[in-house]
Write a structure and sequence with these properties.
Largest sheet: 7 strands, mixed
CATH class: Alpha Beta
Number of domains: 1
Distance between the termini: 21 Å
CATH superfamily: Carbon-nitrogen hydrolase
Strand content: 25-35%
CATH architecture: 4-Layer Sandwich
Order of helices and strands: EHEHHEEEEEHEEHEEEEEEE
CATH topology: Nitrilase/N-carbamoyl-D-aminoacid amidohydrolase
Number of helices: 5
Shape: globular
Helix content: 10-25%
């Protein structure tokens, strides 16, 4: 699988700008030869931003979902992206996997949401696999991957997933110095054991941009998107920083092959 991680800026409360940015990244991924592009968590409204109460739509027919489906179809590429889903009176932190024909073939609702974020989002209750041209896969969202016992990713492994895609919003406190204290250890520790146990790959793609609502107001999402391979090895890490927008192309390895990586910062 030739996978693109689209580490884009997400501006809280500005879905039009965010979806336009996502469309450009999807197009750049297609031109770079990617077969699937992975985008961040809640890319329409921004993680924990209350604008979702007024702006969120449904799956598969809400505005954000339709825009992503149209982009997948227009650029002839599969798309995995996080968005806020309206489900009656409830909102979910959700992710979709869309085929190159623009069909939602898989839909996940985040389960292991942080406590303060549950004031906005209702949580999901299951993980499932999906059959694709690249074998069986799965989708989780951000903190789902470090639930106690790594239960959600391990369950996907038990169900035969060869890979897992994870839209993310990786945030740090405003005072954190990314040079003296690099980001990413939590995800290496969370992805690595599951990859080794099941011979799978896990990719997490974070946005960059501020958090301006909720208990983490003032924190900042800093990218550092990551891919871990079947031996638990880190195949690729995107740059970290407030402005670190990048398109990272990774060839996910098969059982007896090694992956390769391209950094396409000029393709945004």
């Amino acid at each position: 699988m030739r996978l693109a991680l689209a580490q884009i800026r997400v501006e809280p409360g500005l879905p039009e700008a965010n979806l336009a940015r996502a469309d450009r990244a999807i197009g750049a991924a297609a031109r770079a030869g990617a077969e699937i592009v992975l985008l961040p968590e809640t890319l329409d409204c921004g993680w924990t931003h209350p604008s979702a109460r007024a702006l969120a739509g449904g799956v598969p027919d809400g505005e954000a979902c339709v825009r992503l489906r149209e982009s997948a179809r227009r650029h002839r590429i599969w798309v995995c992206a996080g968005l806020v889903e309206r489900n009656g009176a409830r909102l979910h932190n959700a992710a979709i996997l869309v085929s190159a024909e623009g069909t939602v073939v898989h839909h996940h609702r985040k389960i292991h949401e942080l406590d303060f974020a549950r004031e906005l989002y209702d949580v999901g209750n299951r993980v499932e696999t999906v059959e694709t041209p690249w074998g069986r896969g799965g989708v989780v969202i951000c903190a789902d991957a470090f639930a106690e016992g790594l239960v959600h990713t391990r369950e996907l492994g038990r169900r035969g997933a060869l890979w897992i895609l994870s839209p993310c919003a990786w945030a740090v406190p405003p005072e954190r110095d990314l040079v003296s204290e690099p980001y990413g250890g939590l995800w290496k520790e969370s992805y690595g054991p599951v990859c080794r146990e099941f011979g799978m790959s896990i990719a997490g793609c974070s946005n960059v941009g501020p958090v301006v609502a909720g208990a983490w107001t003032g924190w900042r999402c800093i990218g550092s998107s990551m891919v871990v391979g079947p031996q638990g090895e880190v195949l690729a890490v995107a740059p970290a920083g407030d402005d670190a927008e990048v398109l990272l192309i990774v060839q996910l390895p098969g059982p007896e092959s090694e992956g390769d990586v391209e950094d396409r910062r000029d393709q945004r």
